[in-house]
Write a structure and sequence with these properties.
By secondary structure, the chain is an alpha/beta fold. It has two domains: 247 residues, Peroxisomal Thiolase, Chain A, domain 1 (3-Layer(aba) Sandwich), CATH 3.40.47.10; 147 residues, 3-Layer(aba) Sandwich (Peroxisomal Thiolase, Chain A, domain 1), CATH 3.40.47.10. Helices cover 34% and strands 20% of the residues. The protein contains 13 helices and 16 strands. Strands 5-4-6-8-1-9-16-15-10-11-13 form an eleven-stranded mixed sheet, with helices on both faces. It is globular, with a radius of gyration of 20 Å. The model has no long low-confidence stretch (mean pLDDT 95).
């Protein structure tokens, strides 16, 4: 017998703010989190100067200082989001965390990029480990974010590090969902994070995928717009606390939403050429897993990076699956592409949309690219008419994910 999975706590920090009220205000008022960083100009050949940076945040209160002192910015953002999510779920310091029945499924594109750079430089350029901190090698590990959460909150269940580029956060949530649904864990700390660093931007810049309209930072990116010229790289972190419904009810925990379904697949064709067919299939599989029809889904939180191939393939696949102009928008238009964090941040926002009954439009969308699918592209704040949302993400290597979230009605 499969178990129902609910969200009992959540929190995030992103370029729009470090609390939901701040993020909500930016989304409702159409305020971008993108800015210009001329330091990128010191890198020969770098075309973009645009970034999306998380504002200053306060280190978590409950984690011992000696543990925080050795954490990268990537891990710190993850711990900040997780502490607040656990507090909201009533699990901060709870015996469930150390029982072995609570685990972690949390992703990032890689380990901390600055630490990776220092390690690589020491070994390959300076050929001298003398000045290298041991902590850099810990931070550079691909599973450092998930492991840091386990250490910070003394979690003794399964740890699943998801490192699938732009689907790291959504796969983190999806694999946590499966762990609870199948009875392997009673609760999971799930989500994703990303730390901004020039190498992250350089990857996309080399591919000619970044926006180079550096004089208009808040007008970029422009997902689905006919005049878009690429994405903006950002950073952030978001955590959802997922729990078996029975466990949540026994604890008297707040229930914020139900995670109805999840699917993931792979194109198996090309590293950076997204495929409409498998995007369509992942949506169909997620809906089938959730037991919902396309007509029951009221809104799609799009991946929407503002790249030509991605926007066109995603929108065509979405239009094909729904067979109607479903409401559709991209939150990356406000906060940039936060890579390993985006799936978790977008799920966090989507749950707030469900509970508050409104939807954010795509910022900077003036004229839809005629090659994109026939959808209801949101261009202004609108009431949400329905109880179910689909959130989609697509990554390098053709990794695709789809989550189905539903407003909790108490039944």
């Amino acid at each position: 017998m499969t178990r129902r999975v609910v969200v009992t706590g959540m929190a995030g920090l992103c370029p729009l703010g470090t609390t939901w009220p701040e993020v909500r205000s930016h989304l409702r008022d159409g305020i971008s989190g993108v800015s210009r960083d001329d330091a990128l100009g010191r890198i020969a050949g770098m075309k973009t100067r645009l970034v999306a940076v998380v504002p200053p945040f306060t280190p978590p209160e409950t984690v011992p200082e000696d543990r925080l002192a050795h954490m990268s910015r990537l891990s710190l953002m993850s711990v900040v989001a997780t502490e607040e999510a656990l507090r909201g779920a009533g699990l901060l310091g709870h015996e469930l965390l150390g029982s072995g029945r609570c685990g972690i499924s949390f992703g990032s594109t890689s380990g901390s990029p600055p630490s990776m750079g220092r390690c690589a430089r020491a070994v390959s350029t300076e050929t001298d480990l003398g000045g290298t901190e041991v902590a850099d090698f810990y931070h550079a590990a691909s599973h450092a974010t998930a492991a840091s959460l386990a250490l910070a909150f003394e979690v003794r269940g399964r740890v699943i590090p998801t490192n699938s580029a732009c689907t790291s956060g959504s796969q983190g949530i999806g694999m946590a969902y499966e762990s609870i649904r199948d009875g392997l864990q009673d609760a999971m700390i799930a989500g994703g994070a990303e730390e901004l660093f020039p190498v992250c931007t350089a990857v996309f810049d080399i591919l000619y995928a970044t926006s180079s309209r550096n004089e208009e930072p808040t007008r970029q990116p422009r997902p689905f717009d006919k005049d878009r010229d690429g994405l903006v790289v950002g950073e952030g972190a978001a955590t959802l606390i997922l729990e078996d419904l029975g466990s949540a009810r026994r604890r008297g925990a707040p229930i914020l939403a139900e995670l109805r379904g999840y699917a993931t697949n792979c194109d198996g064709v090309h590293m950076v050429a997204p495929q409409e067919e498998t995007m369509y299939e992942v949506m169909a599989n997620a809906a089938a897993n959730a037991g919902v029809t396309p007509d029951e889904i009221a809104y799609v939180c799009a991946h929407g990076t503002a790249t030509e191939l991605g926007d066109i393939a995603e929108s065509l696949a979405t239009a094909r699956f729904f067979g109607r102009p479903v409401p559709f928008s991209s939150l990356k238009s406000y906060m940039g592409h936060t890579l390993g964090a985006c799936g978790a941040l977008e799920a966090w926002c989507a749950i707030h949309f469900l509970n508050e009954g409104w939807l954010a439009p795509t910022l900077n969308l003036t004229e839809v690219d005629p090659r994109c699918g026939h959808l209801d592209y949101l261009r202004e704040v609108r009431p949400l008419s329905g109880t179910t949302i689909m959130s989609n993400n697509f990554a390098f290597g053709g990794v695709n994910t789809s989550l189905i979230l539903e407003r909790w009605t108490g039944t």
